Amino acid sequence: MANVPITVARGDGIGPEIMAATLHIIKEAGARIDIEEIEIGEKVYLRGISAGIEPSSWESLRRTKVFLKAPITTPQGGGFKSLNVTTRKSLGLYANVRPCVAYHPYVDTKHPGMNVVIVRENEEDLYAGIEHQQTDQVVQSLKIISRPGSEKIVRYAFEYAVRNNRKKVTCFTKDNIMKLSDGLFHKVFNEIGSEYPDMEKEHWIVDIGAAKLADTPCVFDVIVMPNLYGDILSDVAAQIAGSVGLAGSANIGSAAAMFEAIHGSAPRRAGQNLANPSGLLLGSVMMLLHIDQTDVAERVHNAWLRTLEEGIHTYDVFQEGVSKTKVGTKEFAVAVVARMGQKPEKLKPVTYRSAPPQAAGGGALKTRAAAKKDLLGVDVSLHWTKGTPDDLAGILSKVVVSGVKLHIISNRGVKVWPGGMAETFCSDHWTCRYTGVENGATVNHGQIVELLGKIAGLGLDFIKTENLCAFDGVKCYSLELGE
Ligand code: NAD
Question: How far apart are CA 452 and CA 457, in angstroms?
Answer without folding.
Answer: 8
